[in-house]
Amino acid sequence: MLKVAVIEDDLPTSRQLRGWIESARPGIRVDQWFNRDEAEAAIAREVYDLVVLDIELGRERHAGVAIINAINKRHATPVLVVSAMPATIYRSIMKALDAWDYLQKATFEESDFIETFLEILRAAKDQRAAPPAGAPLSLDPLRQSTPTWRAQRINLPLTAQRILATLYQNRGQVVSYEQLFQVVKSGRNRDNVRKHVSTIRDAFREVDPDFDCIENVPMRGFRWVDPPASQDR
Known about the structure:
Layout: E1 3-7, H1 11-24, E2 29-33, H2 36-45, E3 50-53, H3 63-74, E4 79-83, H4 87-96, E5 101-104, H5 110-125, E6 137-140, E7 145-149, E8 152-153, H6 158-169, E9 174-176, H7 177-181, H8 190-207, E10 214-217, E11 221-224
Parallel strand pairs: 1-2, 1-3, 3-4, 4-5
Antiparallel strand pairs: 6-7, 7-8, 9-11, 10-11
Helix pairs in contact: 2-3, 6-8
């Protein structure tokens, strides 16, 4: 039986999240915890398949950060953060802590939550074949491991990771906008895809200012081009 922990101090929100989870995957066990002490005690004795948590619990503004750290010390449990904190600020912070995805309260629908929740469960179960030996890029989007470029972590949100994986799996070939629409949860239009690709490039250039492996193909899409072997330092 799959086990999920919902760590949320607001009772109506906790009940809503539990209801969505149970409707998405009947028969799942959902444990509800309402403060940091309860949550950390549960994490110490249980191995969950997924943890859904808020950052702010009661008067502890960053209790969720401490809980994620506690999870990382014990198990490689996927964490989905659901918080009212602004995503523009906290998404990258949570990703740096190895949270798998971030949803900002009042900005998503039930269908968005369920799709993200089920995708993380599938990603945690499956594994993707390792990249070729010596390849500068290492990513495992199914397990949702943090991608690395030349052994340095690349901080990317989930949708950007899916786009990156699609481009890399089809490296050397043009990946059309229509193909990329299939891995974008919402905003399936060219402008939104271009924004995600820009996010990917910016993240790579934070660790490698010379990164230039994603080519624009006007009117068609994008293409991943491996760097020359001499650059694989």
